[in-house]
Amino acid sequence: MLSGIKATVFMNRYIIISFLFSLGLPAAAQKDSLWKKNLKEITITTDRVELYTLGNRIDKPDSLLQRIFKSSPIGSLLDASSGLVIRSYGPGILATSSLRGGNAQQTAMSWNGLSINSPVNGLSDLNLIPSFLFDGISVLPGLAGSLQGSGAIGGGINLNNSALKKEGFSAELMQTAGSFGTYTGGFKFNYTKKKWSHSVKGFYSKTNNNYSFINRAEAGNPKENLTNAEGKNYSVLHQTAYQSAKAGIFKINYWGTFANRQIPPTLLMENTTARQLDNIQKTMVQWDKSFKKVSLKFHSLFQNDYLKYSEKELDINSISKSIFITNDAELRFKSFKNSTSSIGAVHSFTKANVANVLNTGTTTLNESERNQVAFWASHFHQIVKLRTSISASVRQELVDTKFLPLIPALGFKTHLHKTLDIYGQTSKVYRIPTLNDLNWIPGGNPELKPESGWANELSAELNKKNKQLYFTTSVTGYSRLITNWIQWQPVSSQIWSPINIGKVNSRGLELRSTLKISITNKIYSKTGLNFDYTKSENVDATNPNYKKQLLYIPYFKSSGFIAFGIKNTVLLLQGVWVGKRYTGSDNLDSIPHYGLINLALNHNLNLKKTNGNAFLRVNNILNKSYEAIVWRPMPSINFEFGINICFNN
Predict the structure, then answer these.
(1) Distance in angstroms (rounded) separating the CA atoms of residues 271 and 260
(2) pTM for this model (two decimals)
């Protein structure tokens, strides 16, 4: 329970925030034609993260890449289409991400606006999330903590499923086959009639992963085959939606994932029997109601995670169970002319249990609970004469019985010319320690402080469009200083423990560019380029690793593609280049850079009531030997063939 003093402080802060952002409520009752013409869509339907992050660049995969990578997990798609650095242990095995020099726990993953990162370890495994299941996938580098909450220090990944709009029945079937005994398949069934819509999506993947590799840890660098690497993954996503003028929009979503994966040995191991079992269930209820100039939203998520990791050689049989409940409420209204404001509250509850279960008995490693309450307020305003929009937001969070400092953010976007936009933001970001960080036995550190700091960025974006040409390019510079960075380090030969290491400074430049030229009505070419320079250093002068680049953060990463299309057929050449990454805090050990080139051929199928596409993808066509994680070999040259068919009534 809160003490009387803490409760008083809590209420005072909440009243002040609510008062400041409700000053415009009387204006909501006035008639204003500009509201209907310019702000109706923004106010009612726009996701609040996109509405109030004017200074953020939002990266969305190109439609060509989405089609080619439809059968792949989102890690493969985003590696090819954004600045994310993917840390993969191999196809189908654990894959996490790094944004702007942050670690995996500093990338916030959300589904339909609500966070879904594991409350136990703060991660989301990108290899368990199929691209096939989602209508929208986007990356927001530098996402403000006032909007997303804890964990968005590097940025965020948003997954979205939209309600069906077209009446009738439609279906989609997908099947692929590839190298190393890899098969994937998926289906979608959609039905909409009047006010009701239903959607069911399913996906499965199976792989033997018995590819060959060069073992650089052995004398003579012999060629070997990967063992203990089989994996299976099943996912289902269901949505039922009801929409009416009186009741608003009501949705029930369910997303279930089941995976059974072997964990292959590293190059330093002879063999292993390690295996991981994942069972993740998510249920979300959404209610959105729009009035004349006010909208209400209430979204609730229940997440149940089960993970079992076993390894006989080390006598490990670890079972992790957690439940995570989030309730999110928002009131959005037209506060002034050309303005939209929102106030809201988020409550989440987590209960977790991690234990090592053996025949000789059970050892509890982590048994804990967490309550979080956050109140937030945001404001969006258009200054028409200056062709400028500004956004501001603030968040107050209470974790168990402790208040975090206020988390503000301020952004702007200016339309300097019909082809040129300038935008930027300054924001405070933070991350509270995970339950494992605090309570793991042995090694957890209950005295850890939250990571916190300030992030700043500025972008310039140029757009040019006519009948024959579409060109867009943007350049972003950013800087972020984080204090109390959490890092695990060894305290003995067998025990690791997390500590706060002082300060980390991340800064860099990002380039995004797309060019499409229509040569004729049926012939076109398209190119895309992403380039990222990242310098992420320990700047604590008292630390022995002062001015050293952080682990697994490359200075340079680039990706791009060149496509040439004739009628319904497209030939695409796509590549990724990742620079050298350090594997030790002293920057003495590293793994070399690697570059991959992939080739894809896609043909669209268009009939009266049937459409779809068939594709052939050849990955790593130069047969490069490389590692994304040290001592974890990745696949040599491999191929995948697939067909996707859609039926519409």
Answers:
(1) 19
(2) 0.90
